[in-house]
Specification:
Blueprint: E1 3-8, H1 19-39, H2 57-65, H3 70-78, H4 98-103, H5 106-115, E2 121-126, H6 134-140, E3 145-150, E4 169-172, E5 179-187, H7 191-200, H8 227-235, E6 242-247, H9 259-269, E7 274-277, H10 280-291, E8 297-299, H11 314-336, H12 345-359, H13 371-400, E9 421-425, E10 432-438, E11 448-450, E12 456-457, E13 459-461, E14 467-474, E15 479-485, E16 496-498, E17 501-503, E18 507-511, E19 518-523, E20 541-546, E21 556-565, E22 569-577, E23 581-591, E24 597-605, E25 612-619, E26 626-631, E27 634-637, E28 651-652, E29 656-660, E30 665-670, E31 675-678, E32 704-711, E33 724-735, H14 740-751, E34 755-758, E35 769-771, E36 776-783, E37 789-796, E38 802-804, E39 806-808, E40 814-818, E41 826-827, E42 832-834, E43 839-845
Helix pairs in contact: 1-2, 11-12, 11-13, 12-13
């Protein structure tokens, strides 16, 4: 073994807990790190200091807050004194949407352009696990390497096991082509730096007064003797010539200014090992150059462990999930309705930034029971979610403005200028229908709705006062126009509901009077019942589970009532009481002639300090079913597509999962809660600090899942309680054999439904682009920052190579494939070839 790579890190994975104070601290660390690098620039070889802020967030904050530092930052990057890695922050990557992942690299790509220095490492600190779907995104962004410095042992499951630490490999994406060099050195701390940090770094952890925090830590000593570790590796016949260690005193502390002097002294006195202070890129380049052609190739998902924290504030998690989808639709709408307007690229990107701040993996103080700290920190984190929601909605509404009508205010009619007109817009790249819901003000004229030809469409006034109507088919990336008129709706056929049984012409639903669970989900054409009553007594079964005790408790039904009687919509509501909650309501809705059911569960949670969790069980009657899960830019089959180190106690989904055999299956969508358990309630692990409890190494096939909606299992970084009402919506579509494209379309139609806006005049939106392959979808359609072009990102839902032809209503100036980032690489001269499960980025210049 020749040497040791020492990376000077600040391990800022909890940085967003502390908001402004932490921003001040880490901005100062960037400044002081550059100063120290300059001061030691004449040191021999490996002792030259380099500051690695891990993520670009502190540099971006400093860049914006102190413009006078920009030249200093650029020069430091060019001089290899500031090593900037690619990610904006340490996020739970598996809860991201397809497009959200790209925004994690936006600022580092900007600085890459400013400095002409590659930022080619995705460094993930603390979080055990990374979504497989990140691989093609990194390849698209020109990122070649992943360094995973995970937590040493707190709720990390199997992430350190099965020979992963210290052994690099090539990680190939779901498309079979994109790849990155992956390296997990081990835990993000080492015993020498933490020992020093306990005395010099820990005292400043949690300090709310930034004036009390020193600029740097300097004691005149840093123990960089790692000889014992090297000897152990040699005895184990470790095959590589390096050891990688980070140097961090503690979380959110000033940098250790003793390190370069200690390394200089060590290298002067010892021939072995030679210590090199380095950035992650240099370390990974060494691995690639010397060992790249010898390394194994790995496919599959490194399913994350720390996503369970999302259930500690379920209302905010649901808010961010929906904000992402609204913002994606806003991007598409700004392109579809451009009308020569200047597109607010900066505002859209800032909304995505707040989405990312919500996805950053910590939410609270290290000790969340201290109100002085916890209330302030959680208030800041909550603000990220609320700001993201507001900005997404503002962008969405502003995009629709061109097709709305001028109001005359109080001088106009009561119904406003639209005169009952409603424009319905499809932001998806295939034609589909949907249920449109108008509020009372939008439907004041009557209960009858007609289309552009004056033909009446099915409509119904709901018990809430809202008016719903069914739209059969809206063209892809296009629109239709409807009008609310006087009179009552006239529907000849419709749904029925009687004695806890509902029918809609396609499905029959039966609810058990005692449990409120769904005991029959029957396809009326085949007579097949998709519900397995033997599991929890039926589908959508509430279970409260005390922490660390396998003693689930069902709810007690207090009332079942009919909410909507049809004919377009029927709805049953089950009211109940349960442990850990004030109340639970479960609503089951059917829409006439539609092959899916709509569930809406509302939990009014009690703020218990005792560890507990809330689950909804779905046991399906599908023998030998395989479970496939929608992730960003991929589809994962449970167990088959998972690393040995991956989490199997709980999982996350992007929009849908599908359980099916060769004959029958169901596509299950969860709009608000991303976490689910497979086969049983296996996430009940709340044992405090450490890695206690049973961590599953292999799951057996099952057709039962549990939506894990709420918990307070964490002891740090997340709220200890949550209080009040949160809604959890699901859609279930029974079907025959599995079809990934159909499942994905169903999922996207639920998450990004038809858009409607009051409009007197039919906008007659024509599609910006059309594609001719049903197995390929447009994931995003957006304007570039320079306003000169649009980006189309395509996603394939096929296990085979596919060709797709793009056609435009107006001939564009140029259509080019972007091999790296969103920069044009080569012209599109015919059909675009899509890799299996692949992604392609297209730039269209008008």
């Amino acid at each position: 073994m020749d040497g040791l790579y020492l990376s000077a890190l600040s391990c800022r994975h909890r940085l967003h807990q502390y908001a402004k104070n932490v921003e001040i601290l880490h901005s100062k660390n960037v400044i002081e790190g550059i100063k120290l690098a300059k001061l030691t620039s004449e040191f021999p070889g490996g002792a030259k200091y380099k500051w690695n802020p891990e993520v670009s967030w502190p540099v971006e904050r400093l860049w914006n807050a102190q413009p006078q530092q920009r030249t200093n930052i650029i020069n430091a990057i060019k001089n290899n004194q500031l090593r900037l890695d690619a990610a904006y922050l340490h996020a739970n990557t598996s809860i991201a949407t397809d497009e959200e992942l790209f925004h994690n690299f936006r600022f580092s790509r900007y600085l890459q352009q400013q400095t002409v220095m590659k930022s080619d490492v995705f460094m993930q600190v603390d979080i055990p696990g990374i979504t497989w779907g990140l691989v093609p995104v990194m390849a698209q962004e020109g990122i070649k390497y992943v360094v995973s410095w995970i937590n040493g042992g707190d709720r990390v499951g199997n992430a350190h096991r099965f020979g992963i630490n210290g052994y690099p490999f090539w990680w190939v994406g779901p498309d079979g082509k994109s790849k990155v060099l992956f390296f997990q050195p081990g835990g993000y701390t080492n015993r020498h730096s933490v020992a020093k940090g306990g005395q010099t770094g820990r005292p400043w952890f949690g300090q709310r007064d930034p004036s009390k925090v020193p600029d740097i830590i300097k004691t005149g000593h840093a123990n960089v003797d790692f000889t014992a570790e090297l000897i152990n590796l040699e005895q184990e016949r470790y095959p590589y010539d390096f050891l990688a260690r980070s140097w961090t005193l503690w979380d959110n502390t000033p940098l250790d200014a003793d390190v370069p002097y200690a390394v200089k002294d060590w290298n002067a006195k010892h021939a072995y090992p030679r210590i090199v202070i380095t950035g992650a890129s240099e370390m990974m380049q060494h691995i690639e150059k010397k060992y790249g052609d010898q390394l194994p190739v790995v496919k599959g998902d490194y399913t994350e462990y720390w996503t369970d924290g999302l259930g500690t504030a379920a209302n905010l998690t649901a808010m961010n999930r929906n904000s992402k989808e609204i913002l994606t639709q806003a991007e598409k709408l700004w392109t579809m309705l451009n009308n020569q307007r200047s597109i607010p690229r900066d505002e859209l990107d800032e909304a995505w930034r707040y989405i990312a701040l919500g996805s950053e993996h910590t939410w609270s103080f290290e000790n969340p029971s201290e109100p002085f700290f916890q209330d302030a920190i959680f208030g800041v984190k909550s603000g990220y979610f609320n700001t993201a929601k507001e900005r997404a909605r503002e962008a969405y509404d502003a995009a629709l403005a061109p097709i709305t009508d001028k109001s005359n205010g109080g001088l106009g009619p009561q119904e406003g200028p639209a005169a009952g007109g409603v424009a319905v817009i499809n932001t998806n790249s295939w034609a589909h229908g949907g249920l449109v819901t108008l509020n009372k003000a939008e439907s004041i004229l009557g209960d009858r709705v007609i289309d552009e030809q004056g033909v009446e469409v099915p409509a119904q006034r709901l018990s809430t006062g809202e008016l719903v109507f069914w739209v059969n088919e809206v063209p892809s990336l296009g629109s239709r126009h409807y009008r609310v008129t006087k009179g009552k709706a006239d529907i000849k056929q419709g749904c029925s509901v009687e004695n806890y049984t509902m029918q809609n012409g396609k499905l029959k639903i039966a609810v058990d009077a005692a449990s409120g669970n769904i005991v029959q989900l029957i396809d009326l054409e085949t007579g097949y019942n998709y519900a397995d009553e033997k599991v929890n007594g039926g589908l959508n079964a509430f279970r409260w589970l005390p922490g660390n005790v396998d003693a689930p408790v069902a709810d007690s039904v207090t009332q079942i009532r009919v909410i909507e009687k049809g004919p377009l919509v029927v709805e049953l509501q089950v009211m109940s009481k349960g442990r850990g909650v004030r109340s639970v309501s479960r609503s089951i809705r059917l829409v006439w002639d539609q092959p899916w059911i709509d569930l809406s569960n509302k939990v009014d949670k009690l703020p218990l300090l005792e560890k507990d969790g809330v689950h909804f069980g779905f046991g399906f009657n599908i023998a030998g079913g395989r479970t496939r899960v929608d992730i960003p830019w991929g589809v994962v089959e449970v167990e088959k597509d998972q690393w040995p180190q991956a989490n199997r106690n709980w999982f996350t989904l992007q929009r849908w999962l599908d359980i099916s055999n060769d004959q029958v299956g169901v596509t299950w969508c969860s709009l608000d809660a991303p976490l689910f358990e497979y086969g049983k309630m296996s996430a009940n692990n709340a044992r405090g600090w450490g890695n206690g409890g049973h961590w599953i190494e292999k799951v057996e096939p099952s057709s039962t899942i549990y939506s894990w909606v709420m918990n307070n299992h964490w002891h740090t970084n997340f709220p200890l309680t949550q209080d009040g009402k949160t809604a959890f919506r699901y859609r279930i579509r029974p079907h025959g054999a599995f079809n990934a494209s159909t499942a994905n379309r169903f999922g996207m139609e639920q998450s990004q439904p038809l858009v409607h806006v009051a409009a007197n005049i039919d906008p007659k939106i024509t599609p910006f682009v059309q594609i001719d392959n049903s197995k390929v979808v447009v994931s995003i359609l957006k304007a570039t920052g320079d306003g000169k072009a649009f980006i189309i990102r395509l996603r394939s839902l096929s296990p085979k190579e596919e060709n797709v032809q793009l056609s435009f209503l107006k001939q564009p100036g140029a259509v080019q494939v972007c091999d790296v980032e969103e920069k044009p690489s080569r012209p599109v001269t015919g059909p675009v070839k899509m890799l299996p499960w692949g992604m392609t980025t297209i730039r269209v210049e008008l």
